[in-house]
Amino acid sequence: MGIITQFAGVGTTAGAPESIELHVWPAWPQFGRGSFSHIDTYTASFTGEVDIPLVYSGAVNVSFDLTDRDPKAEDGPCRVTVNGLTDHNATYQIRNSRLEFRAEINGRTRTVVMYRTGSEQDCTMVEVRGAGTKTLRLRPLHTPG
Question: I need a labelling partner for 117 at 20 to 30 A (CA). Which of 13, 53, 97, 126 fits?
Fold first, then answer.
């Protein structure tokens, strides 16, 4: 089903703080923080800051828009933006309980995969494939209340 929220961590809401963790086998150290500034059935926008030594330090701004607006679709057109660079002709495909976006960003083809993980399925996994694979886990930061 072409619905973004079913691939984000259970309970993910706009504005809720998330830690940004990088998969460094076998550990998941935290390298930043951020939040979904918007998330609904067909669109999601995540904004954060990371400091990953020797890899990247700065802003992380990613957004997805399933432009076909078809909740029954298994694939279709979409728009993907990564740090201000947008592919208006990107595509998405659902396979193996994962939402895969294929986009041309800065002259390079990238595949971004989004899915749920964690003991309570409350984490959002984001894999970026292209020149190597980077796997990020967006883990909800629970504040004492």
Answer: 53
- The label of the residue with tokens 């076909």 reads 68
Give tens-digit pLDDT for 73-117: 999 999 999 889 999 999 999 998 999 999 999 899 999 999 999
Handedness of CA 95, 27, 44, 14 (dihedral sign): positive
User: Which residues, other chains included, contact 105 with Cβ-Cβ below 8 Å and sequence gap of 6+?
Assistant: 80, 82, 85, 87
pTM listed for this prediction? 0.89
Domains of the chain, CATH where assigned: 4-140 (2.40.128)
Smallest CA-to-CA distance from 31 within 134, 121, 104 is with 134
Dist. CA 43–CA 63, nearest whole Å: 7
